[in-house]
Amino acid sequence: MNHKPDTPRRIPVLWGGRLEERPGAEAFAFQASIGVDGRLAMEDIEGSRAHAAMLAKQGVIPPETAAALDGELRRIGEELAAGTLALDPEAEDIHSFIEGLLTERLGDSGRMVHAGRSRNDQIAVDLRLYIKRAISLLRGELAETLGTLLDTAEDHLDTIMPGYTHLQRAQPVTLAYHLSAWACALNRDRDRLWDALERLDECPLGSGALAGSTLPLDRDLTARTLGFKRPTLNAMDSVADRDFALECAGALSILMVHLSRFCEDISLWAGEEFNFIRLAESWSTGSSIMPQKKNPDFAELIRGKAGRTTGNLVSLLTLLKGLPYAYNKDLQEDKEALFDSIDTALTCLRMFRGMISSAAFNRERMKAACTGGFLEATDAAEYLVRKGMPFRRAHETAALLVRDCIAAGQKSIGQRTLEELRGRSELFDGDLYALLDPVSSVQRRKLPGGPAPEEVRRQIRELRKLLGRRPGGSP
Ligand code: ARG
Predict the structure, then answer these.
(1) What is this structure's pTM?
(2) Ligand 1 centroid distance, CA of 307 (Å)
(3) With a 6 A CB cut-off, is 96 part of the ligand 1 pocket?
(4) Active-site residues: which are they?
(5) Residue 236, C-beta contacts closer than 8 angstroms, at least 6 positions apart
(6) For the segment 285-331, what is each residue's pLDDT rounded down to a tens digit?
(7) What is the DSSP letter of 8?
(8) Alpha carbon distance 261, 256 (integer Å)
(9) Which of 8, 142, 294, 427 is deepest in the core (most CB within 10 A)?
(10) Could you report the per-residue pLDDT of 370-409, keeping only the tens digit for each?
(11) Which range, of 125-129, 373-377, 459-463, 468-472, averages the lowest pLDDT?
């Protein structure tokens, strides 16, 4: 392939004065980013409007120039939104595209907008504005998903099912309890996004390339205009770091790991071996060869997508590692990974919600799975502890009872006669039998955090309260 610069480019570049020769078409396309940062158009326009108004107020550009810039920037935004103006795929990036249009339409006024600004602080502003919006959307989707989980949980406060450790049946719980556990995790994901938002809510505009400007910029004014809490403290930090993007990608990769675990449970439950859940037909797919199949593809795909968000986080970390201060073009690579994590999380939350809200749970199967696996063994041990036996001895006694049952071909401790039980400990009485029932076991686990229906109702209430406190993205 010929790597010599080929045809000179039609579209002007912002740095045209310095270089006599331009990269060829392929090389230019390689370093261009409009295909990715084009989605920051509205944020770029917003940042430029705030910057132009501030320049006029500070006497750097004439007020009528600022007015013309403002009108044209607004028009460009409207045209893009209406689809009457398309992004030019040959522009270098979104900043060049919009500044190029301003110059084309306004002449010298367009050439004034970049005073005291660099694309380095410009992209940092655009990205922070974009993430602020994305976090607001994500928190909204999370709130909806939490709502769905809590509604479903409320319908299943008394739906007994086995709780698992090591994927072995462990102790009886309820479906409401299991779903509330998921909800707690999603609630923290929502909080993590809030924390990220709190820290990134500072405006880099006025940082210039890396060392601010000699022009009398008012950074407080642009920060305020753009809805940031304050300007960033140090201009070099503002253009060099992307930890705000990392925090967002990190929070999203944790969220996706959570969703992937929930989906693993769902995939297991949907199988014939568990048969705990019946996914709606519209949230399942079939097999191209096996006519009988109804597959939990949505759950599997959400589980798989967690690989992307983990990969995106690793990409971002790797991108930043060892990067010398301040700006380097490497940073241009941050957006694709971050945008993909945002898109993936938003879609997966919606898909997960649709799948859960349309699913039916098989109460009988769940309850039946609580007998036969000696899930009552801990209850028997705690019975003995209440009667004064040291726990380690009680544990051993209950374990021996389990062995007795297995040897006798019995499925539960309740099948032993009182005499047989007394053979293991004199402390056993007839009142034990009622306590071995899974329903009773769950009802008596009413400590804070436990699975008893009244306690789970409290947990759900608590989670709903937290949801109400910070709806969507607002404090
Ligand atoms: N497209 C660039 C990016 O995303 C914008 C900043 C370019 N700055 C520069 N000095 N080349 O990082």
Answers:
(1) 0.92
(2) 28
(3) no
(4) 166, 287
(5) 207, 210, 211, 325, 326
(6) 877 777 787 889 999 999 999 999 999 999 999 999 999 999 999 99
(7) P
(8) 9
(9) 142
(10) 999 999 999 999 999 999 999 999 999 999 999 999 999 9
(11) 468-472
Q: Does 120 contact ligand 1 (Cβ within 6 A)? A: yes
In 3D space, the residue among 249, 351, 270 whose CA is nearest the CA of residue 304 turns out to be 351
The CA 120 to ligand 1 mean position distance, Å, reads 6
Residue 1 has pLDDT above 70, yes or no: no
* CB of 123 sitting under 6 A from ligand 1: yes
Report CA 402 to chain centroid distance, whole Å. Answer: 44
What backbone torsions phi and psi does residue 471 show, to the nearest 5 degrees?
Answer: -65, 145
Mutate to test the pocket of ligand 1, among 30, 323, 329, 331 (most ligand atoms within 8 A of CB): 329
Residue 339, ligand 1, Cβ within 6 A? no
Looking at residue 469, its pLDDT comes to 65
Taking a C-beta distance cutoff of 8 angstroms, is the pair 90, 162 a contact? no
pLDDT digits (tens, 9 = 90+) for 212-249: 999 999 999 999 999 999 999 999 999 999 999 999 99
Hey, what are 211's tokens? 């060392």
- CA-CA-CA-CA torsion sign (199, 33, 350, 367): negative
Pocket of ligand 1 contains residue 189 by CB under 6 Å: no
What are the structural domains of the chain? 25-115 (1.10.275.10), 120-364 (1.20.200.10), 377-467 (1.10.40.30)
Residue 155 φ then ψ, to 5°: -75, -10
Distance (Å) of CA 355 to CA 273, 283, 362: 20, 6, 16
